[in-house]
Amino acid sequence: MIQLIEWRDEFCTGIDGVDYEHEELIRHINSLFEKAHDKQSMINSINEIYAEIAGHFVLEEQIMKNEKYDQYEEHRQDHAKLLDDIGDIAEAYESDEDITKLQQLMNDWFVEHFKTHDARLHRISK
Ligand SMILES: [Fe+2]
Ligand SMILES: [Fe+2]
Protein backbone atom coordinates (compact mmCIF):
# COMPACT_ATOMS: atom_id res chain seq x y z
CA MET A 1 0.00 0.00 0.00
CA ILE A 2 1.42 3.36 -0.93
CA GLN A 3 1.70 6.05 1.67
CA LEU A 4 0.75 9.61 0.97
CA ILE A 5 3.68 11.02 2.90
CA GLU A 6 6.80 9.15 3.78
CA TRP A 7 8.35 10.21 7.05
CA ARG A 8 11.95 11.32 6.74
CA ASP A 9 14.40 12.12 9.50
CA GLU A 10 15.05 15.48 7.90
CA PHE A 11 11.47 16.46 8.84
CA CYS A 12 12.62 16.82 12.45
CA THR A 13 12.70 20.44 13.49
CA GLY A 14 14.12 19.77 16.95
CA ILE A 15 11.11 21.37 18.65
CA ASP A 16 9.35 18.59 20.53
CA GLY A 17 5.81 19.99 20.31
CA VAL A 18 6.02 20.74 16.59
CA ASP A 19 7.70 17.44 15.76
CA TYR A 20 5.08 15.51 17.69
CA GLU A 21 2.26 17.28 15.91
CA HIS A 22 3.85 16.75 12.50
CA GLU A 23 4.32 13.05 13.12
CA GLU A 24 0.71 12.72 14.22
CA LEU A 25 -0.44 14.66 11.19
CA ILE A 26 1.51 12.46 8.79
CA ARG A 27 0.28 9.29 10.51
CA HIS A 28 -3.31 10.43 10.30
CA ILE A 29 -3.06 11.59 6.69
CA ASN A 30 -1.51 8.27 5.67
CA SER A 31 -4.19 6.26 7.45
CA LEU A 32 -6.99 8.25 5.79
CA PHE A 33 -5.35 7.66 2.46
CA GLU A 34 -4.88 3.94 3.08
CA LYS A 35 -8.52 3.49 4.05
CA ALA A 36 -9.78 4.94 0.78
CA HIS A 37 -10.50 2.10 -1.63
CA ASP A 38 -12.87 3.57 -4.15
CA LYS A 39 -13.33 6.90 -5.79
CA GLN A 40 -15.94 8.26 -3.39
CA SER A 41 -14.06 7.24 -0.27
CA MET A 42 -10.89 8.71 -1.78
CA ILE A 43 -12.68 12.02 -2.32
CA ASN A 44 -13.92 11.92 1.28
CA SER A 45 -10.40 11.22 2.50
CA ILE A 46 -8.95 14.09 0.49
CA ASN A 47 -11.52 16.39 2.09
CA GLU A 48 -10.61 15.14 5.56
CA ILE A 49 -6.91 15.52 4.84
CA TYR A 50 -7.57 19.06 3.70
CA ALA A 51 -9.45 19.83 6.93
CA GLU A 52 -6.77 18.20 9.06
CA ILE A 53 -3.99 20.20 7.43
CA ALA A 54 -6.02 23.41 7.60
CA GLY A 55 -6.47 22.81 11.34
CA HIS A 56 -2.74 22.36 11.85
CA PHE A 57 -2.11 25.61 9.97
CA VAL A 58 -4.59 27.55 12.09
CA LEU A 59 -2.69 26.43 15.16
CA GLU A 60 0.73 27.33 13.79
CA GLU A 61 -0.53 30.68 12.56
CA GLN A 62 -2.04 31.45 15.95
CA ILE A 63 1.27 30.73 17.66
CA MET A 64 3.15 32.90 15.16
CA LYS A 65 0.68 35.73 15.63
CA ASN A 66 0.84 35.57 19.42
CA GLU A 67 4.61 35.67 19.29
CA LYS A 68 4.69 38.42 16.65
CA TYR A 69 6.83 36.10 14.54
CA ASP A 70 8.87 38.04 11.95
CA GLN A 71 8.10 35.73 8.98
CA TYR A 72 4.43 35.26 9.77
CA GLU A 73 3.24 36.53 6.39
CA GLU A 74 5.59 34.39 4.25
CA HIS A 75 4.80 31.31 6.32
CA ARG A 76 1.05 31.93 6.15
CA GLN A 77 1.22 32.36 2.38
CA ASP A 78 2.99 29.03 1.98
CA HIS A 79 0.20 27.38 4.00
CA ALA A 80 -2.44 29.05 1.83
CA LYS A 81 -0.69 27.86 -1.31
CA LEU A 82 -0.69 24.23 -0.21
CA LEU A 83 -4.40 24.35 0.57
CA ASP A 84 -5.06 25.86 -2.87
CA ASP A 85 -2.96 23.17 -4.52
CA ILE A 86 -4.75 20.37 -2.65
CA GLY A 87 -8.06 21.88 -3.76
CA ASP A 88 -6.91 21.90 -7.40
CA ILE A 89 -5.70 18.31 -7.20
CA ALA A 90 -8.96 17.21 -5.58
CA GLU A 91 -10.84 18.69 -8.51
CA ALA A 92 -8.52 17.11 -11.04
CA TYR A 93 -8.84 13.77 -9.26
CA GLU A 94 -12.59 13.85 -9.68
CA SER A 95 -12.11 13.93 -13.43
CA ASP A 96 -8.99 11.85 -14.11
CA GLU A 97 -8.45 9.79 -10.92
CA ASP A 98 -4.69 10.22 -10.94
CA ILE A 99 -3.97 10.11 -7.23
CA THR A 100 -0.19 10.00 -7.67
CA LYS A 101 -0.34 13.77 -8.21
CA LEU A 102 -1.59 14.22 -4.67
CA GLN A 103 1.09 11.94 -3.31
CA GLN A 104 3.79 13.84 -5.18
CA LEU A 105 2.48 17.22 -4.08
CA MET A 106 2.22 16.23 -0.43
CA ASN A 107 5.71 14.80 -0.34
CA ASP A 108 7.33 17.71 -2.17
CA TRP A 109 5.49 20.23 -0.09
CA PHE A 110 6.17 18.62 3.25
CA VAL A 111 9.85 18.21 2.52
CA GLU A 112 10.17 21.86 1.52
CA HIS A 113 7.88 23.44 4.08
CA PHE A 114 9.14 21.41 7.04
CA LYS A 115 12.76 22.08 6.24
CA THR A 116 12.34 25.80 5.73
CA HIS A 117 9.32 27.50 7.29
CA ASP A 118 8.52 25.05 10.08
CA ALA A 119 12.15 24.45 11.01
CA ARG A 120 12.58 28.21 11.45
CA LEU A 121 9.78 28.27 14.02
CA HIS A 122 12.19 27.06 16.69
CA ARG A 123 13.24 30.71 17.03
CA ILE A 124 9.91 31.37 18.69
CA SER A 125 10.69 29.05 21.57
CA LYS A 126 13.98 30.77 22.36
FE1 LIG B 1 3.64 22.53 10.37
FE1 LIG C 1 3.95 25.63 8.72
Overview of the structural elements:
- This protein has one domain: Four Helix Bundle (Hemerythrin (Met), subunit A), CATH 1.20.120.
- With 126 residues, it is mainly α.
- The radius of gyration is 15 Å and the shape is globular.
- It starts with 15 loop residues before the first helix and ends in a 6-residue tail after the last helix.
- Helix 1 packs antiparallel against helix 2, helix 2 packs antiparallel against helix 3 and helix 3 packs antiparallel against helix 4.
- It is built from four helices and no strands.
- The model has no long low-confidence stretch (mean pLDDT 86).
- The site of one fe (ii) ion (FE2) has 6 residues, from helix 3 and helix 4.
Secondary structure: elements and pairs:
Elements lengths: L15 H20 L3 H28 L5 H25 L3 H21 L6
The protein binds fe (ii) ion (2 copies).
List keywords for this structure.
single chain, 126 residues, mainly alpha, Four Helix Bundle (Hemerythrin (Met), subunit A), 4 helices, globular, binds fe (ii) ion
State the gist of this model.
The protein is mainly α.
Structural class: mainly alpha
Order of helices and strands: HHHH
Q: Give the number of domains.
A: 1
How many DSSP helices?
Answer: 4
Q: Main beta sheet, described?
A: none
User: Could you say which small molecules are bound to this protein?
Assistant: fe (ii) ion
- The number of distinct β-strands equals 0
CATH topology: Four Helix Bundle (Hemerythrin (Met), subunit A)
Query: Roughly how much helix do the residues carry, as a percent range?
Result: over 70%
Any guess at the CATH architecture? Up-down Bundle
Q: According to CATH, what is the class?
A: Mainly Alpha
- CA radius of gyration is 15 Å
From the spread of the alpha carbons, the general shape counts as globular
End-to-end distance, in Å? 41 Å
Low-confidence stretches: none
